[in-house]
Amino acid sequence: MTDSNRTKVIKALTVAGSDSGGGAGIQADLKTFQELGVYGMSALTAVTAQNTLGVQGVYPLEAEAVAAQLDSIGADLTPDAVKTGMLFSSGLIRTVAQKFRQYGWTKLVVDPVMVAKGGSPLLQQEAVQALIAHLLPLSLVITPNIPEAEILTGMKISGMADREAAARLVHAMGPRYVILKGGHDEEGAQVTDLLYDGEQFIYLQSPRIATRHTHGTGCTFSAALAAGLALGHLVPQAVHTAKAFIQAAIEDGLNIGAGHGPTNHFAYQNRLRGQR
Length: 276
Ligand SMILES: Nc1ncnc2c1ncn2[C@@H]1O[C@H](COP(=O)(O)OP(=O)(O)OP(=O)(O)O)[C@@H](O)[C@H]1O
Ligand SMILES: Cc1ncc(COP(=O)(O)O)c(N)n1
Description:
Helix content: 25-40%
Mean pLDDT: 95
CATH class: Alpha Beta
CATH architecture: 3-Layer(aba) Sandwich
Low-confidence stretches: none
Pfam family, one: Phos_pyr_kin
Bound molecules: adenosine-5'-triphosphate, (4-amino-2-methylpyrimidin-5-yl)methyl dihydrogen phosphate
Radius of gyration: 18 Å
Structural class: alpha/beta
Shape: globular
Organism: Paenibacillus jilunlii
Domain Pyridoxamine kinase/Phosphomethylpyrimidine kinase: 19-264
Number of strands: 9
Keywords: ATP-binding, Kinase, Nucleotide-binding, Thiamine biosynthesis, Transferase
Order of helices and strands: EHEEHEHEHEHHEEEHHH
GO cellular component, one term: cytosol
């Protein structure tokens, strides 16, 4: 291919932790970008030693190393959309937010990752305030699950009225859109994600899949959302595709490892190709 006949390459950036087991974190994000036709870039915030059984170690990077990665990307490879995952500490959050402001990266999806499925902390408790103060005001979309929304708002969430109240509170912290994910609500045959734009609530429902292979669902969902935004879709359309992507990925979950297996990042495209 010559330079002149190159079509525009759509690029997305994930700023997140590495999951050595490949189901969550940077690895889930890059696989999802690739499957949705978007060139993936990454800035690592931490290395985790992790598998389907749990998290065996967390090794955060120096803020300088994270800043250097973002500078390398900012100097040469402007992303069409950005997402954040595991950010670990208030120092890393401040660094990342400052770089986003410096480079003017505003098509930003914040997945406020706090705790891994097995219970290991991926964000220090003292860093929640930094997330609220520095990153939420910059974000286009935030994608908390129910426990994360409880920590952000300080309220206990049970039932749909509580979810709407929590979504309003999180929206008031700065993001233009809030998606309060319902994967942790074990009741009912449907999983309901709530999208709030500051005016109206949209409910995205899908059949609840009975499986324990849900490692990395949140990462994969927010990466699919960022990929859609990078492609130029508006938030409601990008959420719709992200929901279809994660639904297929959970339905065809991968039974690897002895614990909570990963979702299947090939599933969505396999179905489009009729190869299920
Ligand atoms: N059992 C399930 N069946 C169908 N969809 C699900 C199921 N569990 C989660 N989802 C979907 O997966 C996406 C991620 O939701 P979830 O609430 O699990 O996020 P999360 O807790 O942040 O994920 P993670 O635990 O990986 O961090 C949402 O769109 C949610 O509706
Ligand atoms: C590096 C990293 N980032 C995010 C998650 C959350 O995913 P899950 O809650 O499914 O374990 C994780 N486990 N590891």
